[in-house]
Specification:
Helices cover 22% and strands 38% of the residues. It is an alpha+beta fold. It has one domain. A six-stranded antiparallel β-sheet has the order 6-5-4-3-8-10. A hairpin with a 7-residue loop joins strand 3 and strand 4. The longest helix is centred in the first third of the chain and has 21 residues.
Length: 208
């Protein structure tokens, strides 16, 4: 004789299906957690100042800056294995306007390439066509952390009676890493290195 199923029979999943469902949910949660962008390792900007360019060409401004950071173990290991690391120092200058968005006047980037040669057992820090060898990684990083006399503002840009806002930062350019390492940098904070933007005061005596 046929009997109708109980009211709760359809809502109770077999034990095997219920276990598979729990595993699927756990795997999805783990994937979402790993896919979330990782926070960058902190870089402190301990000094950032503009000074007049006294080269006799009629003005302009130079940036002096000091950055404080340690290279994470993962990045140090990558360099020693032959992976080039690209560090970028950004500088931006805006003319502030109360009636509209600030106008960007300058956007400059200074790029350093850090490499290691197993043949010479030396580190090299390159800036454009210039490269400097170092016997120790600490020496190369000390040079990278310190910027002196970088010309960021050309003559005639700064004008008397205007208000300006300048800022700078240092970051590891992960777009220059090999593709597998770029993916790793998105999920592993040891592969990401950057500072916050640091406001740089524009001295009044530079506004002529």
């Amino acid at each position: 004789m046929w009997c109708a199923p109980g009211p709760n029979a359809a809502s109770v999943a077999p034990p095997r299906r219920r276990g598979a469902f729990v595993v699927a949910v756990a795997l999805a949660a783990a994937w979402l957690a790993s896919a979330h962008p990782a926070a960058a390792q902190s870089v402190a900007v301990t000094e950032a100042a503009l000074r007049a360019d006294d080269d006799g060409n009629g003005g302009g401004a130079l940036l002096d800056a000091q950055f404080d950071f340690e290279l994470p173990a993962a990045l140090e290991d990558a360099v020693n294995r032959g992976i080039a690391l690209y560090f970028v120092i950004d500088f931006e200058l805006y003319r502030t306007r109360w009636y509209w968005f600030d106008r960007k006047l300058v956007g400059s980037a200074l790029t350093y390439r850090l490499t290691y040669s197993p043949l010479t057992r030396q580190y090299r820090l390159a800036r454009g066509m210039l490269a400097q060898p170092f016997d120790a990684l600490a020496e190369a990083l000390a040079t990278l952390r310190r910027v002196r006399g970088w010309k960021v503002v050309e003559p005639g840009v700064l004008r008397k009676g205007e208000d300006y806002r300048a800022q700078t930062r240092l970051r590891l350019d992960i777009s220059q890493l090999p593709k597998p390492f770029q993916i790793n940098a998105l999920t592993n904070r040891d592969w990401s290195l950057a500072s916050e933007w640091r406001i740089v005061a524009v001295p009044p005596d530079m506004l002529r």
